[in-house]
Amino acid sequence: MEQRRHWWNGKWGRLARRDVFLRVDGDRWHVEQRAGGAEGVSQFYEYASVDEAEETVRALLEGTDAWRELSPRPPSAWAPPTDDPTGVEVRRGQAGV
Known about the structure:
Elements: E1 2-8, E2 18-25, E3 28-35, E4 41-47, H1 50-60, E5 68-70
Antiparallel strand pairs: 1-2, 1-5, 2-3, 3-4
């Protein structure tokens, strides 16, 4: 399952924090509404199209909260950029370089 988008209501604390996630798995779209942070309670919705899922997201983001979109987490295989396209970091001033 790939996370495509994540929104946060900008509030800290177990009682106030809310998150909304948009994810895709094959041809199925999933929306998660979470209250209470990482240990909070979630509601899940599943859809056949991105349009249906985005409609639910829009409804969940309505209200007085100041929702902020957060970047999805990069895959764990991502690494910091290197000087060499082979992926081997080049360090100047070391013996043999």
